[in-house]
């Protein structure tokens, strides 16, 4: 069998320490193996260099068993990849001198769409442009998840490769872990889809509006939307609970040939612990985004090629999964859904496999889910819907900018704490220490107390420098971890808003059909009622987002300020203790 070769479509700068291969456009790569992990292959260039590279960066259509590769590079498939290399979005790193400890955080591989305006750009699908040309809604490239990975036994299904991104693990100090964020990227496992309208149709939204979806089983697991003084909200969670994600443990099977990390999940309403791997989280994520098209399901932390069993990486992954599970268990619809309850409660491999098959055959997903929604009967005026959606779109864009800015400032502050601030305080300490050493040349007893006081002042400033170096793990790391989660949440809303655009477009199409005599007024009324169900669920999700935002950012700010107060209090105490040494001079 001949060698399999592919042509490189995009430059990719690999990280040699992570076993990654740097590749260049038009270069021919010989494939060594494709079973590395989701989105990654291993190959060798014509210089004999071998390593991992993203499969999305090469043209797989030119590969074959000994087949020739044409001289002209094929065009990139823009429906899968947008042609720009995506760097690591969330890398826990430090810019100071190399040391023993390393902590690398999973990073983003999907396009951050939160910064783009789904209302301001032109409609891609001409079937809708005529009826929507007058409004301000539009179409942008989507960050939408694709189908599930059926490779349950993939070696990389727990902490696999980050598709299309290079995740570097930069040395940090032995005692301090800190984060460095690319504020323009969002962490997660979402895939790309160019045409939002086809997504709206594919998910069943259009079929629901037109009344062609099946409602079998919709009498169970009913979901309600109620009107409140702030707008419309999901019905309250009848039995709220919390879930702990703890004790990450390295396990193996097939006599050690396959290794993976397991996490122990314990809901406080059952106190029964279940063991889950990353692949189980990934499967749940796919089920949730397929079932709930108007709910903001945040992306999971990205997969990792190398360093996935290192203690600090595993703990960082556990913290991110804890945030994700917290987010889902706090959602009144997701928390009580059958698939999420199954994820939290299935105790064995057999029940997991049976429940997995049952969940994958759930008929009430996508558009069919709306059959389970009990929405207000009052009809919503189109102008009011437009106003609500445009207002939230502006808010979402502005918040996305604000979140990115906060992450950038926090990352820069972290670097200063680890480098500049530490060095400046230790330079002051060194100056006092050297002065004390000079004064020590005077051996008179009367000079000794001053010499000692100067040395202790120098030691105090060295200690303050060390305190600056370690402080980010107490406040800035926590802030960046939680704010970065919101960057991921915000990236889900362009698809949700675009579903609303598809809904309103279809209603206006039906109105036109009534004028053309192709649809009756009664049929149009039914279309409007069903469209309102989608609208009410979207408004309820927006309201839930705002409610959680207020709670979460209050907690984020309070925790940060308390830690800052304690930090500067320690500095004050250290300086006061140093000052006392001069009382005896």
Automatic annotation (TrEMBL):
GO terms for molecular function: phosphatidylinositol binding. One of its GO terms (cellular component) is cytoplasmic vesicle membrane. Residues 150-160 have a biased composition (Acidic residues). It is a peripheral membrane protein. Gene3D superfamilies: Arfaptin homology (AH) domain/BAR domain, Phox-like domain, SH3 Domains. Residues 241-350 form the PX domain. Residues 161-176 have a biased composition (Low complexity). It comes from the Eukaryota. One of its GO terms (biological process) is mitotic cell cycle. The keyword Transport applies. Residues 1-63 form the SH3 domain. Pfam families: BAR_3_WASP_bdg, PX, SH3_1. Keywords: Cytoplasmic vesicle, Membrane, Protein transport, SH3 domain, Transport. Residues 52-184 are annotated as: Disordered. PROSITE patterns: PX, SH3. Belongs to the sorting nexin family. This is Sorting nexin.
């Amino acid at each position: 069998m001949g060698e399999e070769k592919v042509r490189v479509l995009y430059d990719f700068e690999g990280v040699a320490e992570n076993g990654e291969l740097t590749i260049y456009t038009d270069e021919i790569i010989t494939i060594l193996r494709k079973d590395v992990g989701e989105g990654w292959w291993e190959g060798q260039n014509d210089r004999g260099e071998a390593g991992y590279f993203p499969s999305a960066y090469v043209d797989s259509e030119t590969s074959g068993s000994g087949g020739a590769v044409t001289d002209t590079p094929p065009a990139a498939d823009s429906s899968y990849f947008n042609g720009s290399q995506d760097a690591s979005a969330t890398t826990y790193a430090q810019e100071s001198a190399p040391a023993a400890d390393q902590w690398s955080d999973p990073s983003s591989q999907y396009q951050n769409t939160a910064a783009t305006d789904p209302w301001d750009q032109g409609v891609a699908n001409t079937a809708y442009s005529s009826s929507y040309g007058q409004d301000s809604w539009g179409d942008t490239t989507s960050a939408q998840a694709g189908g599930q990975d059926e490779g349950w036994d993939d070696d990389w299904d727990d902490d696999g490769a980050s598709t299309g991104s290079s995740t570097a693990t930069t040395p940090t100090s032995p005692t301090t872990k800190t984060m460095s964020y690319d504020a323009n990227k969002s962490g997660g496992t979402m895939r790309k889809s160019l045409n939002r309208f086809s997504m709206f149709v594919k998910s069943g939204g259009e079929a629901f509006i037109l009344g062609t979806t099946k409602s079998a089983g919709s009498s169970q697991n009913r979901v309600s939307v109620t009107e409140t003084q702030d707008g419309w909200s999901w019905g309250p969670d009848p039995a709220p609970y919390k879930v702990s994600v703890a004790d990450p443990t390295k396990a193996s099977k097939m006599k050690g040939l396959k290794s993976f990390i397991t996490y122990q999940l314990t809901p406080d309403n059952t106190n029964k612990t279940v063991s889950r791997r990353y692949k189980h989280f990934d499967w749940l994520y796919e089920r949730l985004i397929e079932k709930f098209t108007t709910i903001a399901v945040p992306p999971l932390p990205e997969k990792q090629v190398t360093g996935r069993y290192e203690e600090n990486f595993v703990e960082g992954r556990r913290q991110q999964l804890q945030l994700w599970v917290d987010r889902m268990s706090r959602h009144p619809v997701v928390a009580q859904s059958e698939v999420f309850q199954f994820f939290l409660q299935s105790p064995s491999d057999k029940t997991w496999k049976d429940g997995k098959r049952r969940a994958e055959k759930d008929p009430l997903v996508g558009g069919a889910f709306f059959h389970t929604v009990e929405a207000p009967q009052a009809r919503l005026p189109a102008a009011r819907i437009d106003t609500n959606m445009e207002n939230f779109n502006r808010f979402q864009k502005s918040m996305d900018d604000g979140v990115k800015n906060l992450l950038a400032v926090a990352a820069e502050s972290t670097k200063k704490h680890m480098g500049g601030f530490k060095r400046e305080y230790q330079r002051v300490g060194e100056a006092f220490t050297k002065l004390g050493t000079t004064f020590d040349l005077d051996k008179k007893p009367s000079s000794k107390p001053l010499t000692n006081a100067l040395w202790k002042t120098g030691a105090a400033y060295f200690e303050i420098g060390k305190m600056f170096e370690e402080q980010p793990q107490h406040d800035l790391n926590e802030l960046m971890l939680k704010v970065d989660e919101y960057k991921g949440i915000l990236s889900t809303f362009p698809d949700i808003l675009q579903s609303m655009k598809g809904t309103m477009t279809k209603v206006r199409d039906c109105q036109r059909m009534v004028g053309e005599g192709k649809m009756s007024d009664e049929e149009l009324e039914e279309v409007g009622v069903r469209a309102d169900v989608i609208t009410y669920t979207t408004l309820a999700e927006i309201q839930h987002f705002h409610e959680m935002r207020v709670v979460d950012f209050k907690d984020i700010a309070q925790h940060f300020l308390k830690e800052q107060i304690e930090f500067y209090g320690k500095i004050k105490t250290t300086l006061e203790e140093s000052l006392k040494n001069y009382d005896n001079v």
